[in-house]
Specification:
By secondary structure, this protein is an alpha+beta fold. It has ten helices and seven strands. The strands form two sheets. Strands 3-2-1-7 form a four-stranded mixed β-sheet. Strands 4-6-5 form a three-stranded antiparallel β-sheet. A hairpin with a 2-residue loop joins strand 2 (about 30-35) and strand 3 (about 40). This is BTAD domain-containing putative transcriptional regulator.
Length: about 280
């Protein structure tokens, strides 16, 4: 596994330098808003929590009121009801409970609303910042910094965006964040293989499967590495897990490349017969 390196300048951690930020918002996995370590659970109005979540994703950018109606009340054609005002009032009531903390400010602006994050720590903001810094460092061929940033992004990805919640905008954002995490994990996995650091490569393969249970390349890589180690039982167990998930969840069978790889490894061939695949 990669050794955890110091964060790049500008990347903040909750609890960095021994101090926990007073206001923390988490959207990766289940949603949590915490003030001084205590979870905010009372949102007063039905759509207040959803409004805050949407504005948090669009933080520091004004969102027009029509867009908010479209997102929060998609079944309604009426854009003149008081529903939005009620939800905004409820969010402001929540925020005033910790107005003495460096957290969030909700403003009315350009016929819509804008959420300023001020000094709050937001996991999706740190996740996106870490990945973007890693991408730019990689392009600049500063691979050590890039890997540290990609590992930071992978570590921040604690689960799917707003796990357990539904909505078209949530599904779209969830897929985007999942794809971003998989891109970071792909680099970490490939670099571990280049260094022939099998424990790290296995770790990043397993993290990849946690994010995407049907990620064929991750299963293939695990099979090959265990084949290199002569652990044929583990080769077969990873293949069986992959096949079981495909059959039960998607009603399909593993790709022919995976079948050929399994057959070769079980015959004792450590080197894969499939072009482009290697331990």
């Amino acid at each position: 596994m990669l050794v955890q390196q110091s964060a790049e300048p500008g990347l903040r951690h909750p609890g960095q330098d021994g101090a926990t930020p007073p206001v923390v918002a988490r959207c990766l996995s289940q949603f949590r808003l915490e003030v001084d370590g205590r979870s905010v659970s009372h949102w007063r109005a039905g759509k207040a929590r959803a409004l805050f979540q949407y504005l948090l994703v669009n933080r520091d950018r004004p969102v027009h009121r029509d867009r908010l109606y479209e997102v929060l009340w998609p079944e309604r054609g009426d854009r003149n009801s008081s529903s939005l005002k009620v939800a905004v009032h409820a969010v402001r009531r929540v925020l005033t409970e910790f107005e003495d903390r460096d957290g969030f400010t909700l403003l009315h602006q350009d016929r819509g609303y804008l959420l300023r994050t001020n000094g709050a720590w937001v996991d999706i903001e740190e996740f996106e910042r870490a990945f973007d810094r890693g991408r730019r460092a990689w392009v600049a061929k500063d691979h050590d910094s890039a890997l540290a940033c990609f590992q930071r992004a992978a570590d921040l990805y604690a689960g799917d965006f707003l796990a357990g919640e539904t909505g078209d905008w949530i599904d779209e954002q969830r897929q985007w964040m999942r794809d971003t995490a998989l891109r970071a994990l792909s680099v970490l996995r490939s670099e571990s293989l280049e260094r022939e650091d099998w424990p790290a490569a296995m770790h990043w393969c397993r993290r990849t499967i946690e994010v995407d249970p049907y990620h064929e390349a991750a299963y293939q890589t695990l099979m090959m590495m265990h084949g290199e180690l002569g652990e044929l039982g583990r080769v077969l167990s990873w293949y069986e897990l992959y096949r079981h998930r495909l059959r039960n969840d998607l009603g399909i069978e593993p790709d022919e490349r995976t079948e050929r790889l399994l057959a070769a490894l079980m015959r004792g061939r450590s080197r894969p017969p499939v072009p482009g695949l290697r331990p």
